[in-house]
Amino acid sequence: MNLLPSTLLLPQQTVAKAGAVLGLTQAAAAFGMRGLLVYGRSLQRSGMLDAILSEPPFGMSVRTWCHAGGEPTVGAVDALREELRENRPDWVAAVGGGSVIDLAKAAAGLANAPENTAFYQTNGAAIPPAALPLIAAPATAGTGSEVTVVAVLTDPARNLKQSIRHPSYMPKLVLLDPCLLKSCPPATVAAAGLDAFVQAFESYTSRLATPFTRALSELALVRIAHALLPLYRGNSDAAAEMLEASTLAGVALSHARLGVIHGLAHPLGVRFHAAHGLVCACCLPACLAFNRPAIQRDLDDLKARHGLKVEALVNAWVGAMTLENPFAGGTVADRDAFIRETLASGSTAANPRPVTPEDVSALLDAVLARP
Ligand SMILES: [Fe+2]
Predict the structure, then answer these.
(1) Cα(277) to centroid of ligand 1, in Å?
(2) Cα–Cα dist 89/281, whole Å
């Protein structure tokens, strides 16, 4: 078996240290003197936005764009693309959670594309290479979007949550600065951290995993298991560990894909409007039971090597972080469409056990029946 994925795609440069984000404009000068910085509201509230923009290199102009919040929609990407077409920056930077990074990634990628964003979200549409270089600085420890070529977008009009991707969407420069996590509220720490943990776990057990990705996934699992609850409880010493671990999980999933938890999570998320990480956590027990025949050895290995009991840990977190099940008592009216979407997902295709339409229906029942 090859140690590496057939193609290894990583950012050109990653700077991991406290205060790294304060060097953003200096580093961005390598891409040009006109920039656009996309950010989330908490960055402004915390004062970090002003700090980042306080001393740009002489002659640099940086416009800013505040993400309105929530998961990025195709309409939000269209609006940002319009700004890019009008003002023609040399580079785009995203400082925020996964939603901010995905919004900026999609808009920088499609800045010069002829069609609207929804067109490219449709299966089979050819995605053009990225128009502008992207700098990414995550302000949550979760999606790992800073090291992937994927932007996950929703289209409320079509009730669709689907990613667009292109190898050129990989950020050129990544700034991993634990100081950015200071303004992250506990509910966001919980949802993002659960997403990172499930991503580490699904990439670990994926049928496309390689020794390279499994090593990263395993390291991420152990570190997140150690650091998530302390960070949730306000221990900022855990921020660097969580940030590095979620980035490692991002590198792993980018090359090994995920599994049926993420296959279910997108169609569930768009129907129940729940935080993605929480959706993943609520899907984990049923999917883990379904996959158990194919992954028992992995579960045994994690327990033997690290004392890590995956299902018990996630259940303990959901209790300790007072998270409510967003599906309890809910129903999915369009079950056939739901099953089709789950089976069409690249995540489901990477699941360690093959998934049939009947399996998806049974998993959906189990997730909705969870108290
Ligand atoms: Fe995820």
Answers:
(1) 6
(2) 39
Measure CA 42 to chain center.
18
pTM score of the predicted model: 0.95
Q: Give me ligand 1 centre to Cα 183, in Å.
A: 21
Contact 76, 175 (CB under 8 A): no
Burial 332-343 (b: 16+ CB within 10 A, else e): beeeeebbebbb
Question: 305 C-alpha to center of ligand 1: Å?
Answer: 25
Q: What is the CA(197)–ligand 1 centre distance, in A?
A: 9
Residues 199 and 233: their CA atoms lie apart, in Å, by: 22
Structure tokens belonging to residue 263: 């296959």
Distances (CA, A) of 348 to 263, 291, 341, 354, 360: 5, 12, 10, 8, 10
Determine the distance separating the centroid of ligand 1 and the alpha carbon of 59, expressed in angstroms: 39
User: Domains of the chain (ranges plus CATH)?
Assistant: 13-179 (3.40.50.1970), 185-369 (1.20.1090.10)
Query: CA 244 to CA 27: how far, in whole Å?
Result: 20
pLDDT band at residue 257 using 50, 70 and 90 as cut-offs:
very high
Cα 46 to middle of ligand 1, angstroms: 26
Contact yes or no for 280/198 (Cβ under 8 A): yes
The strand order across the sheet containing 34-39 reads: 13-16, 173-176, 134-138, 91-96, 34-39, 61-66
Tokens 């909705």 map to which residue? 368
Ion ligand 1, residue ranges at CB < 5 A: 195
Other C-beta atoms closer than 10 Å to the C-beta of 325 total 17
- pLDDT tens for 116-149 read 999 999 877 899 999 999 999 999 999 999 999 9
Q: Cα of 204 to ligand 1 centre, how many Å?
A: 14
